[in-house]
Amino acid sequence: MEIHPLLFIASPVYIQEKRVEVEEESTSIYVRPATEKIENALIARQLHYFSKPTKEPRVLVFILKSGEKIHGSIDKISGSQVLLNCYDTKRWIKANEIVLIHHTL
Length: 105
Fold this sequence. Notes:
This is YolD-like protein. By secondary structure, this protein is mainly beta. The chain has 1 helix and 5 strands; from the N terminus they run αβββββ. It has one helix spanning 41-50, and strands at 60-64, 69-78, 81-86, 89-94, 98-103. Strands 4-3-2-1-5 form a 5-stranded antiparallel sheet, covered by helices on one side.
């Protein structure tokens, strides 16, 4: 027994097309710049300890490999760079250039 529709209407086929815009994929790779690390572990610990906030800023003496002595307090550490508050100015120095750190009273 065949079943036929009761009413057949001939109509055009309806197809809905979906247009999708494809963005080109980027083939570039983002590489983070490697931050330089502090080589001397003792200097690194001292810098992180002395950079903690206190009521009064700690005035320190930084002795560099060149023999230069810098008086100031630590404002910020970024990788191997240290920002110092030296009286009226701010100065960036490389942590790997520091030989000794002394606390002044």
